Amino acid sequence: MATNDPGVVGADAPMSTGAAATASATDRGRHIRGLVGQYALLIALSMLVLGPLLLTMIQALSQPFTWAKSKPLHPVAVDWKDRTWFTGGAFSVVVRTLVVLALFAWFQRLVAGVSWRQWRSLLKPAHLVSIVGTTVVFTVMLSFTFGSLHSVDGVSQWWIIASMLAVAACLLPGMFAARPLGPVGTLLGAAAMALVAVGAGVIFVGAEAWTATWDSARLGPAMNQSLKMAVLITVLQVVTSITSAYAFVFLDFPFKRVIFALFMITLLLPLEVTLVGNVALIRQLEWINTTQGLVLPFAATALGTFLVRQGFRGIPPEINDACRLDGYGHLAFLTKFAVPLTRPVIAAFTVISALGAWNQYLWPRSIIDNDDYATLQIQLRTIVGENVADANLSIAAALVAALPVLVLLVAFQRQIIRGLTAGAVK
Q1: What percent of the chain stands above pLDDT 90?
Q2: Which of 222, 248, 291, 400 is the most buried (most CB within 10 A)?
Q3: Can you tell me the distance from the alpha carbon of 307 to that of 38, in angstroms, rounded to the nearest whole number?
Q4: Is residue 343 domain-shared with residue 312, that is, in the same domain?
Q5: Do 161 and 243 share a domain, yes or no?
Q6: Does residue 71 lie in a domain region?
Q7: Are the beta carbons of 398 and 380 closer than 8 angstroms?
Q8: Looking at the 3D structure of the chain, how many domains does it have?
């Protein structure tokens, strides 16, 4: 029976409000538990995937026969440097510290859910304290950890644990201020970041194997040569691919389809087929042991033209017509409309081109006979052949060579995904 008694209505209202608050708290609790479970599962899966890499790190830091006799993940005879974080010259210290500062700034940006264009949001007191404080604590605590590892005083594991706890504690203010996931979720994320940061700092900065490999294998000049070659090849391939793709899409000239077909046929010719002729030409031009000999034969690629052409074909014809009516020429339309609209495709090809140039071995090996011009891949092959008994040095050199590739993939991961999925959804 319906009733208009105000007392009854007043009695029912608090019960409804309390039930709604209870339901909201229950839903929030489920949401937090779900997030914590997801993070825990992701961390467990990442550790499972990174397990073989951890074993490789252990082998890289240890003598191979010592490592083989011990149990996997068992402490082995690792030579540690007699150093602190602030040892090694001003330039080295500044570079290491800036890398760590950028790492913790990236983590705070990730937690806050903002892009690098919104970097001013990281200047809030909570984020700023976390970034700067974590960097200072990280450098100071690792200095004590390095000393303990070098002296073999038996308490190194406690210094490592203390470093992780201190770093995690400094990360918490920015994490709580950015996007609170509940106490458990926030603590779990801070602990995971501290584990990765301290572990990477101890392995990559404190171990002697990296310095021994860098000095004995002359990785510095070789990496510089490979970096110069990769940058020049990538820039030239991107420029020639964009201009040629623009010509094939937006310009009309005789036999355009035939020329494009002949252009694509070059993809069927591997480097080994044209190697002898190209080497003979390089010798006639006296480009042996030169940068132009390494770079110019790869200044253009049909693959890049094909990928960028497919991106340009996705531009609506109405945009081109409107630009022509507004008085835009080919160069203006290319730089202001065509390239920005196909940026994901161009970025993906840039990564592909850079990886291919960085990993080249056959061509540099064919035209380089002077160690002063040797690229990184040539030096890696030399290290493997000369250090059969010291396999840890070879593994350490290979990991050093893979580091720029890892940085490139992490930096351009969004562009790679967008480029590969461009046109997948209509």
Answers
A1: 15
A2: 222
A3: 37
A4: yes
A5: no
A6: no
A7: yes
A8: 2
Please tell me whether residues 387 and 364 are part of one structural domain: yes
Secondary structure (3-state) at 225: helix
Whether residue 18 lies inside any domain: the answer is: no
Do 270 and 298 reside in the same domain of the chain? yes
Pair (267, 380) in one structural domain? yes
Q: Tell which residue, 285, 268, 296, 265, has the closest CA to residue 363.
A: 296
In DSSP notation, 95-164 reads: HHHHHHHHHHHHHHHHHHT--GGGGGGGGSHHHHHHHHHHHHHHHHHHHHHHHHHHHT-S-HHHHHHHHH
Indicate if the pLDDT at residue 426 is higher than 60: no
The string of pLDDT tens digits covering residues 126-137 is 888 888 999 999
Q: What is the C-alpha to C-alpha distance for residues 41 and 49, in angstroms, rounded to an integer?
A: 12
Rounded to an integer, what distance in angstroms lies between the CA atom of residue 160 and that of residue 141? 8
Q: Where are the alpha helices (DSSP H) in 334-425?
A: 339-341, 343-358, 362-367, 376-386, 391-411, 413-421
Rg of the chain in Å (alpha carbons): 29
**Confidence band (pLDDT; 50, 70, 90) for 305?**
very high
Please indicate, yes or no, whether residues 154 and 197 belong to a single structural domain of this protein: yes
pLDDT at 332 over 90: no
Q: What distance in Å separates the CA atoms of residue 246 and residue 187, rounded to the nearest whole number?
A: 52
Question: Do 381 and 244 belong to one domain?
Answer: yes
**What mean pLDDT do residues 54-73 have?**
62
Instruction: Report the C-alpha gap between 225 and 227 in whole angstroms.
Output: 5
The CA distance from 292 to 299, in Å, is 10
39-49 pLDDT, tens digit each: 677 777 776 77
Whole-number percent of the chain with pLDDT over 70: 79
DSSP-derived secondary structure letter, 71: P
- CATH of residue 260: 1.10.3720.10
Q: Which two tokens stand for residue 27?
A: 């839903």
Last residue of a domain, one of 186, 206, 226: 206
Lowest mean pLDDT among 78-87, 177-186, 194-203, 328-337: 177-186
Residue 74 lies in a domain: no
DSSP structural state of residue 268? G
Q: Are residues 317 and 406 in the same domain?
A: yes
Closest of 203, 108, 191, 207 to residue 150, by C-alpha:
207
CA gap 66, 310 in Å, rounded: 54
Amino acid found at 55: L
**pLDDT band at 380; cut points 50, 70, 90:** confident
